[in-house]
């Protein structure tokens, strides 16, 4: 079945406002780009199986898409992740895509192997969900067919998405994955990212700013 991986990206220059108490806007923008590069690198590893597109109206994100050889679905309204994916889903269906996978641009520990597992787990009709580490958000959603349920993103999207799938009567596969599971929205999650092994773009950037053991303890205390 023809499939596509969608990565919604709002403005990189004003990204990650919830990290304001930990990082100024320049560093938030740098981190947002580093995390997006990490996600795109993982996505590039599955291009042999599915297409990949950024859903964005941001010039910097469009440049990154060109660098990676990804498609761009132009988001001229730049309203929300929910609106962007609704528009992109219609775009995909018009072009014959039967399967969509949605991942955010702020899960820097994602790997190509994890995405391969999501694809391998996909039912003939139904969905695969990978929840956030706290099981509140939906950090990866595969839908087959592409609009089997509408997606509504936010702080507590996972359970509503599960309920929506239950109503369809189609198969739902839930996978727990350490890489996809960690999204970076709040200051204490910077510490969680640094505690993990790895040398992702986002991890290297934070370490270059001297986020070390003392900072980890600070974020842990804030949890």
Short summary of the structure?
This protein is of the alpha/beta class and 223 residues long. A seven-stranded mixed beta sheet has the order 3-2-1-4-6-5-7, with helices on both faces. A hairpin with a 6-residue loop joins strand 5 and strand 6.
Question: Which key terms come to mind for this protein?
Answer:
seven-stranded mixed beta sheet, 9 helices, alpha/beta, 7 strands, Spore Coat Polysaccharide Biosynthesis Protein SpsA, Chain A, 223 residues, 43% helix
| End-to-end CA span | 43 Å
Helical proportion, percent range: 40-55%
Structural shape: globular
Q: Number of helix segments? A: 9
What does the main sheet amount to?
Answer: 7 strands, mixed
Question: Roughly how many Å is the radius of gyration?
Answer: 17 Å
Structural class: alpha/beta
Q: What is the CATH superfamily classification?
A: Spore Coat Polysaccharide Biosynthesis Protein SpsA, Chain A
The top-level CATH class is: Alpha Beta
Question: What's the order of the H and E elements?
Answer: EHEHEHEHEEHEHHHH
């Amino acid at each position: 079945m023809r499939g596509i991986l969608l990565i919604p990206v709002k403005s990189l220059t004003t990204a990650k406002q919830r990290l304001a108490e930990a990082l100024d806007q320049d560093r938030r923008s740098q981190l947002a780009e580093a995390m997006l590069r990490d996600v795109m690198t993982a996505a590039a590893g599955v291009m042999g199986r599915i297409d990949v597109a950024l859903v964005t109206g941001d010039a910097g994100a469009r440049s990154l898409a060109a660098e990676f050889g990804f498609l761009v679905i132009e988001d001229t309204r730049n309203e929300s992740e929910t609106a962007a994916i609704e528009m992109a889903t219609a775009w995909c269906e018009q072009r014959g895509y039967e399967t969509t996978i949605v991942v955010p641009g702020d899960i820097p520990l994602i790997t190509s192997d994890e995405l391969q597992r999501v694809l391998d787990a996909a039912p003939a009709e139904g969905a695969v969900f990978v929840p956030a580490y706290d099981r509140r958000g939906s950090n990866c959603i595969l839908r087959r067919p592409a609009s089997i349920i509408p997606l509504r993103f936010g702080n507590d999207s996972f359970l509503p998405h599960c309920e929506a799938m239950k109503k369809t009567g189609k198969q739902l596969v839930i996978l727990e994955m350490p890489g996809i599971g960690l999204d970076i929205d709040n200051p204490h999650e910077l510490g969680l990212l640094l505690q993990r092994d790895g040398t992702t773009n986002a991890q290297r950037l934070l370490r270059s700013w001297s986020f070390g053991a003392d900072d980890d303890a600070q974020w842990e205390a804030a949890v």
